[in-house]
Amino acid sequence: MQRILVTGAAGQIGSELTPALRERYGSTHVVASDLRTPAADSPLSGGPFELLDVRDRTRLQAVVVSHNIDAIYHMAAILSATGEANPQLAWDVNINGLVNVLEVARATGVRRVFCPSSIAVFGPETPRCPAPQLTVLHPSTVYGLTKVTGELLGDYYVQRYGLDVRGLRYPGIISSETPPGGGTTDYAVDIFYQALRTAQYTCFVRPDTVLPMMYMPDCIRATLALMDADASRLTRHCDYNVAGISFSAADLAAEIVRHIPGFACTYEPDFRQAIADSWPQSIDDAPARTDWDWRPSFDLASMTADMIRRLKPRLAA
Ligand code: NAD
Ligand code: AKB
User: Fold this and answer.
1) 4-171+217-241: CATH, from 3.40.190.10, 3.40.50.720, 3.40.50.2000, 3.20.110.20
2) How many CB atoms lie within 10 A of CB 232?
3) Ligand (nearest to CA of 170)
4) Whose CA is nearest to atom 9 of ligand 1?
5) Count of CB atoms within 10 A of residue 177's CB?
6) Per-residue pLDDT averaged across 211-228, rounded?
7) How far apart are CA 159 and CA 2, in angstroms?
8) For the segment 113-162, what is each residue's pLDDT rounded down to a tens digit?
9) Do 4-171+217-241 and 173-214+244-283+297-316 share a fold?
10) Structurally, what CATH architecture does the domain formed by 173-214+244-283+297-316 represent?
11) Pocket test for ligand 2, best of 186, 216, 273 (most atoms within 8 A of CB)
């Protein structure tokens, strides 16, 4: 049975990935870790937790050795909008944290690392509709720079050291359990909270902004499917494109109106508009479909209905 460490486990994805891994591998086999201690009623409460800053290699190695870890899901990162506010912090956490994870893996018994990438690897010169798997990677954010570097570094550890490192270029992730942590695609989650609380939302990108997005159940399924895939079928390692749903901010608002008829969305684009404009509108994920049978299961209508079904009782209470 694998013994897994999840870094950045208290974040938007880690807080749902960790319970999914615990369901598969057993609660005591999956150690959650983060900079911040989760609340007692958090989704992480069902198993071991370690306070861990991924920039501290000594502590990271001590946690890996003491729990006899053989796989790391490295979710700790600084996202695009926070990264533009503090580029040095983004570089420090995203690059030095990743180097520490890979080096600790090499020095200990860790055999497998999952390291997420992002649509942020693409930039204004990338074809936007769809972004091909193999294309120009010239991002305009520090976050995108760290993600391109992370993909290349992961691939290097595969060829140079034989470490099994895998990664996906996640689109913007939409979810109902834990709010997103400082990205450009956060509006596609915030809009649900405000629609249910006040029936109004001021969106920080223009209504015609189209971005690739994915609902959390598909994100978790894609992550587990890539990690389950037979290595002999993989033609790539750390940079698989994965597509979910592409829609504009106005399309999302219109879909929410079908459930909350009085909902009104206004638009006041801020600095995140330029980031969104530098990313593609859709993704070509043919290698993921061929190599490990990837198919998304949620569209805009089913994602919106499920988000509202989950959030409504919680926000009403
Ligand atoms: P998040 O911001 O919600 O969570 C990141 C977590 O990392 C937070 O809990 C934070 O406390 C923790 N963290 C920050 N600095 C740390 C440090 N120095 N040491 C340890 N922990 C630290 O992010 P997320 O949305 O869960 O993203 C997880 C991964 O997926 C990241 O690599 C991100 O780039 C990638 N990704 C996310 C999305 C998305 O839309 N959520 C899209 C593309 C890629
Ligand atoms: C962000 O907006 O920074 C993230 C991402 C797409 O990587 N959600």
Assistant:
1) 3.40.50.720
2) 5
3) 1
4) 11
5) 15
6) 98
7) 23
8) 999 999 999 999 999 999 999 999 999 999 999 999 999 999 999 999 99
9) no
10) Alpha-Beta Complex (3.90)
11) 186
pLDDT in tens, 16-74: 999 999 999 999 999 999 999 998 889 999 999 999 999 999 999 999 999 999 999 99
Q: Which residues contact 77 (CB under 8 A, 6 or more apart)?
A: 8, 11, 93, 94, 97, 116, 146
Q: Are 151 and 234 in contact (CB under 8 A)?
A: no
Q: How far apart are CA 245 and CA 211, in angstroms?
A: 8
157 as an active site residue: the answer is no
If you count them, how many residues does the chain have? 317
Give me 13's structure tokens.
Answer: 């994805």
pLDDT at 1 over 90: no
Domain boundaries, the chain: 4-171+217-241, 173-214+244-283+297-316
Q: How far is the CA of 66 from the centre of ligand 2 (A)?
A: 33
Residues 54, 97 contacting (CB under 8 angstroms): yes
Q: How far apart, in whole angstroms, are the C-alpha atoms of residue 85 and residue 219?
A: 27
Closest atom of ligand 2 to 182 CA is 3
pTM of the model: 0.98
